[in-house]
TrEMBL record:
Pfam families xref list: Urease_beta
Assigned EC number: 3.5.1.5
Stretch list, region Disordered: 1-20
SUBUNIT field: Heterotrimer of UreA (gamma), UreB (beta) and UreC (alpha) subunits. Three heterotrimers associate to form the active enzyme.
Enzyme class: hydrolase
UniProt name for this protein: Urease subunit beta
Gene name, Swiss-Prot/TrEMBL: ureB
Gene Ontology BP terms: urea catabolic process
Chain coiled-coil ranges: none
Amino acid sequence: MTRYADPLPPGGVPGEIFPKAGDIELNEGAERLTLLVTNTGDRPIQVGSHYHFAETNPALKFDRDRALGWRLDVPSGGALRFEPGQEREITLVPFRGARRAIGFRGDVMGEID
């Protein structure tokens, strides 16, 4: 008997991952919103995958009202970096679940809808 409920199988590697065959589509079926964003600041700005995009750094210029309740359409844990003066088109997906924004910059602090 071991201390662990699921011992490592013979020949197994600790932390080994067994991915399913085929492709995984991120945010499958989610509505998408495309916005043009410009970094008007003098420093790079990085935005993480699950950050409420409407509450990002004020130096990022875009339609914040349209971005209310949306986040970047990038893999979990990923981010986009905006260099000073850079203008780029981004894609957002809606927050799911309870659709509450607590924290971030404190602009919403409750229900999004």
